Amino acid sequence: MNDPGREYRWSGPVPSGPHHAPSLPSLDPALMQTLLEHITARVAVIDREHRFVYANHEALAFYGRPPEQVIGRHLAEVVGPAVHAGYLPFAERLFGGETLRWRGWVDYPNHGRVYLHETMVPFAPDGGAVEAVVVYGRDHTALKLREDELAVQLQRLHASEALKSAIVDYALAALVSTDAEGNIVEFNPSAEAMFVRRRADVIGQPVSQVLIPERFRAAHQEGMIRLAAGAAPRALGNRMELHALRSDGTEFPIEMVLWRTDAGGGVFYTASMVDTTERHHTAQQVGRQREALRQSEKLSAMGSLLAGVAHELNNPLAIVMGRASLLEEKCEDADLRADVLRIREAAERCGRIVRTFLNMARNRPALRVAVDMNELVRAAADMLLYSFRTHGIELDLSLAPSLPSINADGDQVGQVVLNLLVNAQQAMSGTAGPHAIRVATGVEHRRQGREPRVWLRVADTGTGVPAELRSRIFEPFFTTKGEGMGTGLGLAVSRAVVLEHGGDLNLEHPAPPDGGASFRMSLPISGMAIDETGPVPLDAPDAPMLSRVLVVDDEPELASLMRDLLEQAGYEVATAESGALALALLDEARFDAIVSDLRMPDMDGAGLWREVLDRHPLLAQRMLFVTGDTLSPDARDFLRTARCGALDKPFSKAGLLAGVKALLAE
Question: What stretches of 452-491 adopt beta strand conformation (E)?
Fold first, then answer.
């Protein structure tokens, strides 16, 4: 029974008339039954109603049914509707007396897809009308499959060029075939493009010497020897991620599937390879982004802890700085004043380190103020000085004196400076000495219509940046550092910050004479810097003598220090150790300004401000909050809402006096 819609190959010639019983001697019915039941072909008889009249043992076995489920049953019921539908177009021809012979694939319910040779002969007794069709069939599925297999093998043996043009030449993947000894016998155009090698140059060459990196060649040779000895293959048919070698000696990642072909009595191995460089880059970028997000979340979780630690550390630092400043002014002995100066400078250095940590952890909108570039450099150097010393790195600061200030966000630019110094340190890691970082600042005078700028140069004696990578070092997630040494975001973010400030950040070319790399940053000038680190003279008070200031701080030593600093500047000062005591003093006396700690136990600075706003509205506009807690969101929100000034701990005398003077000026 043929499969509808399928093309069949008809054999001929075929008798056109119906079959008539020959004039032969009569055969014994038992003999005929034995003959039909044991013939190695299917024999079945179908009447005009398409019902089975007879089916021999071979036919019943093929249909998978006993006789009672075949004889007398309709063709569609036995072989399925699909096969019956394929029989219908030829039924009219058969019962019209035409003999048909065909071969092809048919889908049977019980046998699946089989390849059959069938002859259908109409039967008309005594020359009358056709009453039945005798079907003779043979299952040639195994033979057909064997023929197809032999055809494929013949094609492999004799169609090398045809296969190359039809498959190999137009394949998107790189296809490389070798013989049993590992010599290249085929190298398609995609392989030529991937490995940057010509086919003519690699045919006959050992694949290990041409495409495999040297560090993997020994393992490849061991695998070839193992296969030659009859060992089971480990790599055949498996998708593997490996590294390959281009003609210029660079390695790149690939994905490969290897299979074996036996042809012409020989063994051949073919590898299908895809360059996965872009996929690896994408995966690395995702990994770096995930790591950056993890670091961001970690930093956010540490925010409150940093704020508390900074607050506790800033209080004693402020006391040391303030007392050292007062003592420095009182000392008449030069040697003693020099010792006090060292104490004050050391305390200021500690304060800069704490402030740098807090600035790195802050997440706040950009705030443009006058910033001293030299101070940013000193703060970053103070933070990294111990690390430089333990790594044998000499730090040379050549900072221009009286450097003009720049209009910038000090936190953002400070992080750029810190990042350049850290990059310089990492560039020298693992290299032979000497190790040195040279930092210089200066002024770039007006040129080409641009306003004057302040510039910063950071140069190191590390490995430098290869010429082919110079154009990529500012790309996001691109890094020349080793695994785990960086995310590839530092320079990209730094340049974005500098460009946002209207400046430039570039890798200087040519490289420094002693090797390494040199980065130069320039930012526009906004005004002259103000020196806040030196002692403030006693004979230059910042406010009228009769101005009265209330200092509120739960730390008695800190309150006493601020009182002494303000009194020496000519202010009348009262102190309160709590918000409740401050309110009581405000009810009894007049004050022109309030300097208060933001974090206090019974009533914090925000609570005090609300009470003052309710009782003394004008005075609420003259409150300065001294705090080390500006990292917390609550503190930032309050200061923004109250529109009050803030002075970060530890503070200098000049900073405190400038803050109070600004309050009184309002």
Answer: 453-460
Return the ∠ at Cα 157 (arms to 152 and 160), rounded to 5°.
Answer: 100
Residues in the chain, how many? 666
Long-range contacts of 232-235 (CB under 8 A, 24+ apart): 233/260
Spell out the residues 6+ positions from residue 291 whose beta carbon is closer than 8 angstroms to its own. Answer: 487
Cβ atoms of residues 97 and 80 within 8 Å: no
- Cα 163 to the chain's mean position, in Å? 40
For 628-638, what is each residue's pLDDT tens digit? 765 567 777 88
The dihedral sign for the CA sequence 377, 378, 382, 385: positive
Residues 539, 541, 546, 552: is their CA dihedral positive or negative?
A: negative
Task: Tell me which residue has tokens 């007062």.
Answer: 326
Query: Letter for the amino acid at 467?
Result: A
Region of residue 227 (phi > 0: left; psi between -120 and 50: alpha; otherwise: beta): alpha
CA distance 471 to 476: 12
Instruction: Give the global pTM.
Output: 0.37
- Cα–Cα distance between 412 and 306 in angstroms, integer? 19
Pull the structure tokens for residue 160.
């090398």
Q: What radius of gyration do the chain's Cα atoms show?
A: 47
Q: Can you tell me whether residue 567 is helix, strand or coil?
A: helix
Structural domains in the chain, CATH included, are: 9-146 (3.30.450.20), 159-275 (3.30.450.20), 373-528 (3.30.565.10), 548-665 (3.40.50.2300)
CB 497 within 8 A of CB 413: yes
Q: What is the pLDDT of residues 198-215, one digit of tens each?
A: 989 999 999 888 888 988
